[in-house]
Structure formats: structure tokens, C-alpha cells
Amino acid sequence: MQELAHIQSWYASQCDGDWEHSYGLRIETLDNPGWHVTIDLHDTELAARSFSPVERRAGEFDWVLCKVEAGQFVGAGGAGNLADLLAVFLSWAEA
Prior knowledge:
- 23% of the residues are buried.
- α1 (2-14) packs across α3.
- The longest helix is centred in the first third of the chain and has 13 residues, at 2-14.
- The protein has helices at 2-14, 19-22, 82-93, and strands spanning 25-30, 34-40, 54-59, 62-69, 72-78.
- The radius of gyration is 13 Å and the shape is globular.
- Strands 1-2-5-4-3 form a 5-stranded antiparallel beta sheet, with helices on one face.
- With 95 residues, the protein is an alpha+beta fold.
- The two termini are 20 Å apart.
- The chain has one domain.
- The mean pLDDT is 96.
């Protein structure tokens, strides 16, 4: 799962002795079942970058919704879509 290595690298690149004390990222489970990913963008080069929301529904358990709001990347998806959520963020962050 290369997305995990890439998100670790992105996180490490934000850690400057200050950012990581106030901001970070969270990966949580949903009860429908699924995943919820929140990544703080404050004080990063992504804070002012435009993001077009992503919505993909391929089935009851195969779905991805991503947006940026209130200074955070927010993604939710089905139980098998964690890598997809991280890939959406990384594709945007590394563009």
C-alpha cells in the first residue's frame, strides 16, 4: 500500500517542531462501515490551494467523498476505500 508510505512522508515533511503540536491527520472508522480521514491544511502549502470535491459511488460499500472545508481535507469512504481516500489527497497534494 504505497499510499501509506506517501502519507507518512507528507506528514513528516510538515513536522517543523511547531505544526505537529497543533495540527495533524486522523484516520477513523465509520459505523456504516467505512473510513473518515481528516488532514489539517493550516500552515501548509496546501492551505490556499483550490480543491474540486470528489464524489464516486460504485456501490453500497464502494464509495468515496472528499472535500476541503474549514482548513481541512475531509474524506469518507467505504470499508475498502481507505487507500482511495489517501490517493485522492496525495494526488492533489503532490500536483
